[in-house]
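quick one before i forget lol
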Amino acid sequence: MTDEELSTEDIKRFGDDGDHTGWCPDCGWQVYDEAEFCQECGNQIGGRVLRRPPAAAEFHKRMMLLVTVVVIVVFFFVFVM
């Protein structure tokens, strides 16, 4: 089962400000927050909507890893040596 296409009622209900959209965690397609199924891949979402685009989420994860490693290295040099 897949969601139907955008309708005028959907646009009125969700608005066009982009605050009520997210991204499918499986394929990265933009979906509504309350969507049960992704329109693109058909997988069930059920509340697992990503708040950032997949590329931005991946960038955020990598930056957090980099910052963590830098903090650990700085801590090591300051307090161990």
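fyi The chain has two helices and two strands.
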